[in-house]
Amino acid sequence: GVSTKSDEYLPSISRDGQFCVFVRSLADSAKSGYPARIETLMISTLSESGEFDSGIPLGYPFKSNIGSATLSATNKHLFLTICETDLNGYNNCDIYISVFGNEGWSEPVSLGPGVNGKSTFEAQPTLSLDQKSLYFVSIREENIGGNDNMDLYVSNYREDGTWGQTKNLGRTINTEGNEKAPFIHHDNHTLYFSSDGHEGFGGFDVY
Fold this sequence. Notes:
Layout: E1 7-13, E2 19-27, E3 37-45, E4 56-57, E5 66-71, E6 77-85, E7 91-101, E8 104-105, E9 109-110, E10 121-127, E11 133-139, E12 151-156, E13 167-168, E14 179-184, E15 191-195, E16 205-206
Antiparallel strand pairs: 1-2, 2-3, 3-4, 5-6, 6-7, 7-8, 7-9, 10-11, 11-12, 12-13, 14-15, 15-16
């Protein structure tokens, strides 16, 4: 199914359990050196036997080397991570949205300055069931662990159709270490995440 001899990671299951969106990393024969990989956003469908198939690339308008993604409860809105190198050579990762319509998925659009920054890292989005709160990972100067570590943030959807200014989830969640891989449960109250800064068994644990 989803798992092959290639690398598969950053999975997200749709709320109805019918789809799995994930990243598959394949060797790029046209490149040499490191990293000679192509990251492709895949979507797998649950079969009648109750198992997910091997998945197909989401294809146009999604390019290669796209990171983590998550579907809305309606499966019509896809929030995804896109990294682009600016003129200074900085690989800026931001969160985008694509909407599914009669002609397929729309061209991804940045969530805007409320979420994304020109010199900050945003990735690994997870959307609340009511589609009003977006939780994600960010690396920025105001992080509790400084701009060398990842913190978890939230942005709330506004009535004017934009995403509001991000809020750090604070020291109950974030530490001077790294917090990543958030998942907001469909109850809108329970947050799962990974951290190497809380007291645990060593390295990254799930909380």
